[in-house]
């Protein structure tokens, strides 16, 4: 998915920007923070990983991405291993690669001490092809691809937000009533 | 997803409507014409008669040459320049227990008074080095070597690659730089505990006989501070408050035949009796053998 304008040996007039792909997620692994002072709390390690042009639909991939959002990495791998979807296998490979990278290159001490902070999908390049029907009929089908992005952060997964109780809602309502004022008056 | 186009299909007929669809999907004007470069040459088949196919390769070449067929010369010429050697020739073996005794005790004094033990090879090498570089002296060289050493480590901390290449040979550069791209290194030189001195000189040649490289081993006993931080600013190794006493045998090399060659750091000699390095702050998992689900690990039994 590199820019076609850079691959041609001869000069080409068609240098369109929509053909160039952005690689911002890969560049996020290259930022270097300055050394921490002794009094600061220890900064958790972050690892960004992605896979491009997976042959799957990004709408279908979204269900799996939201499934594992906020889980610890072991729990996420367990859920994906026993999911029946095609994208589950791909996401599992991506998570294992990211875990390996974290331990080897980014100084993460324990490979289970990671949780998934960001898990997102994006649409890839679509390509249109002919689908042949009977009696000379045809249809134009689109072959859809997607990208998958994941960010692993060191540490236990954050606790889930407690659901809003009726008591909290009542307190908020009273707060709203008390904060009413008159505007544009003396 | 697939929308059947019935009205247009009925009018044009079965074959034509597919071609129309293809024309819709990949119109002629979209793909740039300069992508396709047609090469219009007719492939010539070499006419070798039946009886000539059984000949040996030399006879076949002779036939080709006599028929007037000119083969283009396929000699690939690629010159490369060896600016440094790949290893330390004849590494110095330091005496056991060097720099263990205090300077005022008898064995300590004996170590200090140890003159440069001019073995025959060192004296010969010194003569050869002085042939090519008359300003070289084994008494003034250690200070110059120490300056190069300090400057190289400062460049490593600041990631000044251009200058580092001029201070360090190509063999030593990857050893210094590997794995440090996304790390912060803080190094400082606090002072020498003993003045550096030349311990061994060697001179050898590569490829051809006159292509001389000189290697000088310098013994340095100094106090240094090293701290390595990883990508997120967390301490990985060492500490900034604790200075350490370091005894090193550093090898410097120069391409003697080259008039613009300079003395550069080539590597270090680690003696066999050296104490082990301190542990890193991280715990590392060493994977065990790959087992079947039915097997148990031997240590658990």
From TrEMBL, chain A:
GO molecular function: structural constituent of ribosome
Subcellular location: Mitochondrion
Keyword entries, A-Z: Mitochondrion, Ribonucleoprotein, Ribosomal protein, Transit peptide
Pfam families: Ribosomal_L22 (PF00237)
GO cellular component terms listed in the entry, alphabetical order: mitochondrial large ribosomal subunit
Disulfide bond recorded as keyword: no
An individual GO BP term: translation
Tagged with keyword Ribosomal protein: yes
Protein family per UniProt: Belongs to the universal ribosomal protein uL22 family.
Name by which UniProt lists this protein: Large ribosomal subunit protein uL22m
Biological classification of the source: Eukaryota, Metazoa, Chordata, Craniata, Vertebrata
């Amino acid at each position: 998915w590199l820019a076609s304008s850079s691959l041609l040996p001869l000069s080409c007039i068609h240098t369109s920007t929509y053909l160039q792909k952005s690689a911002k997620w890969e560049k996020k692994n290259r930022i270097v923070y300055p050394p921490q002072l002794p009094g600061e709390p220890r900064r958790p390690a972050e690892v960004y990983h992605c896979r491009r042009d997976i042959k799957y639909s990004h709408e279908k991939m979204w269900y799996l991405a939201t499934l594992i959002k906020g889980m610890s990495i072991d729990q996420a791998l367990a859920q994906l291993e026993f999911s029946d979807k095609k994208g589950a296998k791909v996401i599992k490979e991506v998570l294992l690669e990211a875990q390996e990278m974290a331990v080897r290159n980014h100084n993460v001490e324990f490979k289970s001490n990671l949780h998934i902070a960001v898990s997102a999908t994006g649409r890839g390049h679509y390509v249109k092809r002919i689908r042949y029907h009977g009696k000379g009929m045809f249809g134009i089908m689109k072959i859809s691809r997607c990208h998958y992005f994941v960010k692993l952060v060191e540490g236990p997964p954050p606790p889930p937000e407690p659901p809003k109780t009726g008591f909290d809602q009542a307190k908020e309502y009273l707060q709203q009533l008390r904060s009413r004022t008159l505007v544009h008056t003396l | 997803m697939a929308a059947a186009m019935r009205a247009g299909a009925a009018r044009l007929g079965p074959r034509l409507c597919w071609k129309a669809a293809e024309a819709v999907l990949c119109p002629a004007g979209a793909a740039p014409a300069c992508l396709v470069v047609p090469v219009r040459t007719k492939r010539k088949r070499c006419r070798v008669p039946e009886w000539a196919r059984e000949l040996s390769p030399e006879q076949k070449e002779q036939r080709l040459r006599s028929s007037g067929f000119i083969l283009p010369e396929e000699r690939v010429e690629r010159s490369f320049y060896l600016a440094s050697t790949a290893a330390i020739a004849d590494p110095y073996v330091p005496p056991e227990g060097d720099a263990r005794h205090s300077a005022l005790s008898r064995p300590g004094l004996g170590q200090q008074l140890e003159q440069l033990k001019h073995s025959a090879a060192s004296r010969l090498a010194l003569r050869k080095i002085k042939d090519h570089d008359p300003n070289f002296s084994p008494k003034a060289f250690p200070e110059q070597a120490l300056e190069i050493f300090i400057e190289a480590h400062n460049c490593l901390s600041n990631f000044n690659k251009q200058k580092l290449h001029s201070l360090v040979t190509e063999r030593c550069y990857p050893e210094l730089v590997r794995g440090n791209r996304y790390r912060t290194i803080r190094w400082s030189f606090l002072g020498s505990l003993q003045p550096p001195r030349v311990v061994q000189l060697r001179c050898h040649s590569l490829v051809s006989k006159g292509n001389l490289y000189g290697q000088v081993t310098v013994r340095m006993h100094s106090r240094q501070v090293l701290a390595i931080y990883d990508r997120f600013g967390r301490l990985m190794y060492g500490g900034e408050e604790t200075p350490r006493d370091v005894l090193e045998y550093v090898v410097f090399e120069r391409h003697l035949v080259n008039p613009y060659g300079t003395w550069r750091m080539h590597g270090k000699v680690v003696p066999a009796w050296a104490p082990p390095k301190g542990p890193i702050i991280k715990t590392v998992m060493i994977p065990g053998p790959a087992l079947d689900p039915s097997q148990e690990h031997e240590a658990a039994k």
